[in-house]
Amino acid sequence: MIDNQQIANIIEGDTYIYLNKLAVSVNTRYRHYSFSEIKNGNTLKESLEKIYYKNSYKLSDEVIISEAIYIDNKLNKDGQFKNLDYIKNLKKYNPFINENVFIDLYYVDVNNKQSILNFINKYGLLGSDYKFKSDYYIKNFANPKTLFSGNYMIKPIIEDYSVIKENIKIFKATVNLWHGLKVDNINEKHLNGLLDYLTRDIEENFNYFEEVPANKNVIAKTMIQSVYDEALKPISPILRPSEDGYKAGYTSSTLLGVIYFQLYKIILNQKQLYKCKYCGKLNSPNTKNRSDEYCKPQEGIEGHSKCNNDYNNMIKKYRPIILNNKLDSDSIKELSKNIEWTDYEGNTRRGRPFKEVLQWLKNYTARSEKNKKMLEEYKDDHPNIFK
Ligand SMILES: [Zn+2]
Fold first, then answer.
1. How remote is the CA of residue 68 from the centroid of ligand 1, in Å?
2. For residue range 21-44, what is the model confidence (pLDDT) as tens digits?
3. Which residue of 181, 325, 329, 335 is 20 to 30 Å from 100, comparing CA positions?
4. What is the DSSP string of 19-60?
């Protein structure tokens, strides 16, 4: 077995992402005079295609672009920052060692532009359209093989909105398939989530799929494999200096590559994504010394997470109601239907499983004399509940 610390070491990689101020969504169909690099193009779309994309690439009508490029023009025409003071004010982070980026992307609502922008402004552009980018863009903005101040760094500035949306959908479907595989619950919905994007692979393997229609797990595994044929291309192995020589490291030319690399390590180590015991949110396995039970505490906060506290408070609220009122099994069943809790989207929900509520009684260790006495009396009156 690989312990948590080893996993933390495995996912360690180098690639600092510079967040270029805020990202904004821009319609590319019109002329935009604020964009100083527009020279011969008639619309922003034509200009952006010319500067940042390969010849053949047709940009869609909407892009997410760094405000620094779009309005401030803090870069000179070679794509370098005009002064280093500006760089110092940018947020810089290494996504390889950020546990939240993975699951935050999973919970982005692809049909809500603000949700996508919130993610990008927190973590940077995904780089999902990198293979359509021009050499000029790669050389100046997204070349992590260039060491800068001892770090590999990328400064993504523009991304095709429709490609971002499609790639978030694929990522979410891939995570769902992996989670489904681990809990042995692959359903058609999981498979259909990826079917649209893997049409060519499916056609090539048509006989294969016809032969094993009953074996959903085999199809799911093949689909994940197929996603990974593309997903790891932005990742490169590198040498990392260590105390006694060198060790293996990784770098990525895109944020999306890093996120897929984290899932890749989870898959290879047969780690399970887990659902929070309180709110039901899917989480990536903990790399710090925490059990995979509740959502992780906020960054920089030690101790219990909010979900862990909320769960304990829920027990503290409802257990005394059962014990004080000496509720029998049927009454507990009724009570459990009305227990209030909050799901990961902040909605108030009612009802916890009966079995779970019984567990709160079975696991209870009373501390005060008064509570000990109350518990003993309750046990005597309802021996069946404790069987
Ligand atoms: Zn939670």
1. 36
2. 677 788 877 765 555 555 555 788
3. 181
4. E-S-EEEEE-SS--TT-TT-SS-SSHHHHHHHHHB-TT----
User: What is the CA(347)–ligand 1 centre distance, in A?
Assistant: 12
Q: How far is the CA of 114 from the centre of ligand 1 (A)?
A: 22
What's the CA gap between 116 and 199, in Å, rounded? Answer: 26
How close is the Cα of 116 to the center of ligand 1, in Å? 21
Name the phi and psi angles at 276, rounded to 5.
-60, 130
In the reported structure, the alpha carbon of residue 283 is separated from the centroid of ligand 1 by a whole-number distance in angstroms of: 8
Instruction: For residues 100 and 286, give the distance between their C-alpha atoms in angstroms, rounded to a whole number.
Output: 10
- Taken in order 297, 301, 306, 311, is the CA torsion positive or negative? positive
DSSP state of 90: S
Q: pTM for the whole thing?
A: 0.82
pLDDT band with cut points at 50, 70 and 90 for residue 284: confident
Paired tokens of 60? 């869609």
**R_g over Cα of the chain:** 26
- For residue 165, the CA-to-ligand 1 centroid distance in Å is 25
* Distance from Cα 104 to the centre of ligand 1, integer Å: 13
Q: How far is the CA of 276 from the centre of ligand 1 (A)?
A: 5
310 burial type by CB count under 10 A (0-12 exposed, 13-18 middle, 19+ buried): middle
